[in-house]
Amino acid sequence: MAEPLKHRFGPEIPEKISAMIVEVYPEFTVNDFLEFCLSDYQALELKARALRIAQGFKATLPDSYPEAIKILVHSLGEKLTKTDDFGMSPFVYFPHVLFVSEYGLEHFEESMAAQYELTQRFSAEFSIRAFIEKYPEDTMARLAEWALDPDVHIRRLASEGTRPRLPWAQRLPIFQKDPQPVLKILELLKDDPELFVRRSVANNLNDIGKDNPQVLVDVAERWMVGASAERQWIVRHALRSAVKRAEPKALAILGYQPSENLEVVSVKITPTKVNKGESVTVCFTLKNNGSLQQSVMADFSIHFVKANGKTSPKVFKMKSLQLGPNEQVTLSKKVSLAEMTTRKHYPGVHKVDVILNGVTHPLGQFELMALEAIEESLS
């Protein structure tokens, strides 16, 4: 089991930060700061530890936020010189961005200047969201400027900070409802020379597609016109969740068109009665009865029974392939029915579908046996 990240953000972090501060602010009360930060520190999780340090800044730096943030910015170390393999080192500035979001909302210019510096050493994607919510127009205007900045980390913040569904930060409901302000930023970044930025653009579009699927399709279609290989990669990566959801319009952009010439034969779902903890295998043969080669995205879904007896489909990726005229291929996949942290299994009939280029066709079913039925069969 991997070591919890909080263990790599131990008591040495506030000690390191205090040493950085006292270099530029000699009157800093280091002992008071450390006493405040380290009280019950070991019991706290990673973000709570960072927040405790941010609160320590508030308790021991000057009361004036502009003066306090000026000291913190002057204490910062060297800027990042690469875009990967950071390790945990940049996390030393996690408390600084939390200080900005917690105490700097009434000081827009000072806080934006601080985030400009911080994101070149860590990332201000956490703190910038509070300013988007409080000052949406002013913040997005500033981010549009930053999208053209020479520094790759500044440009990435313009995309990463505006993601509607950033997994490790608060969502941005205003952009879930209307992503148009975000799209103006992404248009500036879609041909960025750095993969670090382009990956963020793709992830942002993927977020947008979860709430606004047609917007994603419209942008993807437009961006694919005359697209470079790099921009094509952005579109494919942005469509990944839509493809997993088997959305036909998204698949069509990638060249997977619905076809009446595809036929599914020789279906086998084994075993038809299965116990929890075992596996079920889905197997079928796919035939192209047409006279032209077909691009095929073949997936299948299992309608898992939930605790309330209703079912919910889960899509399993199988294979992307080219199928020639009158050619056929056999596809197979085994699915474990062991208990997982992300999926519980309940007895009942589970229907299975095959999804070909976004079009769903029934395959069959299997039954997950109840414990009582298993015990009865053994008696």
From TrEMBL:
Pfam families according to UniProt: DNA_alkylation
Superkingdom of this protein's organism: Bacteria
InterPro entries: ARM-type_fold, DNA_alkylation, Ig-like_fold
Record-given protein name: DNA alkylation repair protein
Protein's organism: Litoribacillus peritrichatus
Highest classification ranks of the organism: Bacteria, Pseudomonadati, Pseudomonadota, Gammaproteobacteria, Oceanospirillales
